[in-house]
């Protein structure tokens, strides 16, 4: 039996979108391929609220995290971690001999703008890496406040991991001044995994031109230059199935309307939060809750694995706590095409299983 | 109108295989996901004629070329180029600060075993990188002879780019002693682009353990370790659509029978070669012709672009010459699920357009 996914990616994808993956193949060096990527880029610019260029990568989001830290760090990077995925970014830097420091915020908390200011004021860093929405903890960082601080540092290139938030909550890339804003297909964009996306600002381009250790496949400057030279094509052979589905999905997203989409995500988040507060506790600081995922502290000491097994028998799947948080928390994702009705149905089933 | 693809990837994919891409999503940290990757690996071991482990990468083949040269070079790499894709491997090394030398064979020629011997006898290299089948020239390297030489050098780890040949011609990975054998989905495996595959020998594992600059996303050792630790799962979120389709495709390949598949490819190749020799000339040295692609020297000085345009109107696509060979050659791919009947139909149409 198929299980409806309420996990933080892969998310549920509707049949008509899945079917677009099955579009017959075309050559990747044709006008049709150029038109496809150009259309996708134009539509993504609306979702990202940016006028900058959009790069596609046939890889998971981790690939573009690697591309961003290698391509934009000439001197030294500061990686701000508020959970597992922030820490991964630092590990990526180390694995590529990119000079970097890790600043760890306690799990469940967001980073404060003042902390960012203090770090950058040392003058040690020319690039900064922040997770917008951390699915291991359920925290969403206050990027508006952080943006005001980062803007003071003209030489610092800012990469923001919006893998699990883009298209689920408003992220105004140009207004915030984010130089490399990264997402991937299998979260709030409600597509299958297999492709990642980033914006790439002029400031980031200028920086990348000064960096020598950019690598090859994830060299953001090479992706950008090829796109410009070959009229929106990809240096190697891209995942055409994902591009067909992404192009179609973006039409549906713009048809729903971005503001409506953000509102729907907010309503789902609020419903789950209220339920969690009534019956359990929220893991994350209540001032910085994610709009796409809720991390519930398991104060009733339920058997999360058993709950998920029973939910599975009814055709639903949620996530256990991440890593060391296993059974200490459980996570309900409310992103993509999931509706408030879906969420209510899930919660009713959880209530029924737990007898609450 | 859909064009039947006779280009060296993406290739034509049948409807039932495309439809497998549209399988509803599952969690990538579930037993179902483990079972899927394990099944794929077991079947791929048959196609690769290997008992070693199989790694999947959500990326194009270029990604695993990067992974191979970074993960298996501790001292210095020798990259043997017989065309555009061999040269790319060297550029990948340079972009990652991997110590490497490039040995270039004139286009249209294969590398001789003696040349490989001479290079390795210098003792300078602990890794070697060879393209099996070079789609820019139409040459297939004589890997059996090369294998005998490389086996003399116990400390040299051998990576072989079989992106455009695996499953289209017999490559006995273990018998040859190839340590990292790389392919990707959109060539003779007849799937859409978006995933690449490699075998990973014990010798390659031992080498990778001594290499520090392996990077993150394409770190072959990390892919291997995660697969072993998490029972055939992927460190980040893999392209599930490709995995569903690959698993199904492999059943069809094994059903056809590998020997039958190689024979079919050989027959198609011979048909195209004979036609080319009768009407044009073969670009590549006749002793080392590719079984999956024929590069035809444009001795009649036809307008290749115009030919392809007219073919397009009839629902077919072939490839122009690669890079500087544009209009000097044209390329007909005969790989994947293409049949001799398809090839005959294409050739008839070319004859008709050219009036030959």
TrEMBL record, chains A, B:
InterPro entries: Aminotrans_V_dom (IPR000192), PyrdxlP-dep_Trfase (IPR015424), PyrdxlP-dep_Trfase_major (IPR015421), PyrdxlP-dep_Trfase_small (IPR015422), SP_NH2Trfase/AEP_transaminase (IPR024169). The keyword Transferase applies. SUPFAM superfamilies: PLP-dependent transferases (SSF53383). GO terms for molecular function: transaminase activity. The keyword Transferase applies. It holds the Pfam family Aminotran_5. Keywords: Aminotransferase, Pyridoxal phosphate, Transferase. Its cofactor is pyridoxal 5'-phosphate. Residues 25-323 form the Aminotransferase class V domain. Belongs to the class-V pyridoxal-phosphate-dependent aminotransferase family. This is Alanine--glyoxylate aminotransferase family protein. It comes from Clostridium oceanicum.
